Amino acid sequence: MTDHKHLPPDEEMDGYAKIDMYNPAKVEKLAGWYKNIIEEVGENQIGKGSSKLPNV
C-alpha cells in the first residue's frame, strides 16, 4: 500500500490519490493552438481569465 500522507487533504479521495501529470511539449503546442483560435475569433487575450493561460 502506498503512503499518500504527503498529499494535501483536499487531494486525498477515500484512499485514492489524484496525480496530474502533463507533457510540457504537448502543453506548449496546445497553448499555441488555443492562442491562434482566440486571435481568429477576435477575442481579447488579456481579458478575464486569461491569467490562467500559459504564455506562448
Describe the structure.
By secondary structure, this protein is mostly helical. The protein is 30% helix and 7% strand. It has a two-stranded antiparallel sheet. Strand 1 and strand 2 (16-17) form a beta hairpin. The radius of gyration is 17 Å and the shape is elongated.
Summarize the structure.
The protein has 56 residues and is mainly alpha-helical.
Structural class: mainly alpha
Number of helices: 1
Spatial shape: elongated
Strand order in the sheet with the most strands: 1-2
What is the chain-wise order of helices and strands? Answer: EEH
Percent strand equals 5-15%
The main pleated sheet reads as: 2 strands, antiparallel
Q: If you compute it from the alpha carbons, what radius of gyration comes out, rounded to the nearest whole angstrom?
A: 17 Å
Low-confidence stretches: none
Work out the number of β strands. Answer: 2
What percent of residues adopt helix (DSSP H or I)?
25-40%
Terminal residue distance: 41 Å
Task: Name the average pLDDT.
Answer: 75
Task: Looking at this protein, list some descriptive labels.
mainly alpha, 56 residues, two-stranded antiparallel ribbon
Task: Give the arrangement of secondary structure elements.
Elements: E1 12-13, E2 16-17, H1 24-40
Antiparallel strand pairs: 1-2
